[in-house]
Amino acid sequence: MGCFIIAEAGVNHNGDLKLAKKLVDAAAEAKCDAVKFQTFKAKWGLIKSAKKAAYQVKNTGQEETQYEMVKKLELSEQDHRELIAYCTTKKIIFLSTPFDRESVDLLHRLHISMFKIASGEITNKPLLKYIAKKQKPMILSTGMSTLGEVEEALTWIYEEDNTQVTLLHCTSNYPTDMKDVNLRAMETLKKAFQVDVGYSDHTLGIEVPIAAAALGAKVIEKHLTLDKEMEGPDHKASLEPHELRQMVDSIRNIESALGSGIKKVAEGEKDTRIVARKSIVARQKITRGEVIAEEMLCIKRPGNGIPPKYMGQIVGQKAIKDIEEDTLISIEDITFHKE
């Protein structure tokens, strides 16, 4: 089964349902498996005096508070229903990340197939346990966390008899510098907790998610925007539609290239194998009845005759017919005799 690729629309709809649907279009056209939004109520998620993150200030300025910024990005229940229906017509899975209990209940009521949990909630024991009780698959991002904190979060989830967990390695900086990616930590998560792992990417470009797929990521998540120059906190660390399509195509190519792991002759190299390998060839004319000596032979292309490794078995045998110079030796040309 291939990597499950999520286009993270997040809040890049800027509170506009029409923009949200265009993001769905872009994700579907890029052949992503799912498109993901965020479900929250500002009043349940942050105090009104909460400061913006540095990247939010850089991308949106300081004229408004984080509360005011987030409030404008809420999606209503009706918005969710319309988006779910629209995703169905586009044959792409609708997902969303809940940030409070009410949002969990809304998504559960709307029969969402799985829950994606943001990195910032990894220490939110009450929310993690509340989601785990819904007994649906959970994809948990692990940005900003230590291995011990991940272990603690998994313990809380497992206590609710829910073991359907995939961990996403993540670096929660927008955009993420290459030196901070630490992609091998994804493999560490897999070894430590024996669960499926993936990668949630915030770097610029598409190289790192492609590398994650090559390293065995089961899930890849990448932010999507219609235009990086749009107003909002996450647009600049997102891919535009043509870039997302390139990422998906590249990941699918990598998956195909990884293959089965069995070392065998590929179908496409069978012809090359004949051309590139060599066979035992008559260096001179060998007449019928002659005993073949090593100096009568040489090794040349193509490789559809007797392989060179059998040179020792050919030397000392008798020719049963004339063998012309510069022709492949065949079994029919010689008779094997016991000394």
TrEMBL record:
GO molecular function: N-acylneuraminate-9-phosphate synthase activity
The organism's place on the tree of life at top rank: Bacteria
SMART domains linked: SAF
InterPro entries cross-referenced by the UniProt entry: AFP_Neu5c_C_sf (IPR036732), Aldolase_TIM (IPR013785), NeuB/NeuA (IPR020007), PseI-like (IPR051690), PseI/NeuA/B-like_N (IPR013132), SAF (IPR013974), SAF_AFP_Neu5Ac (IPR006190), SAF_PseI/NeuA/NeuB (IPR057736)
Gene Ontology annotations of biological process type: carbohydrate biosynthetic process
Domain AFP-like residue range list: 279-337
Cross-referenced CDD domains: SAF_NeuB_like
Pfam families documented for this protein: NeuB, SAF
Cited PANTHER family: N-ACETYLNEURAMINATE SYNTHASE, SIALIC ACID SYNTHASE
The name this protein goes by in its record: N-acetylneuraminate synthase
Taxonomic classification: Bacteria, Bacillati, Bacillota, Clostridia, Peptostreptococcales
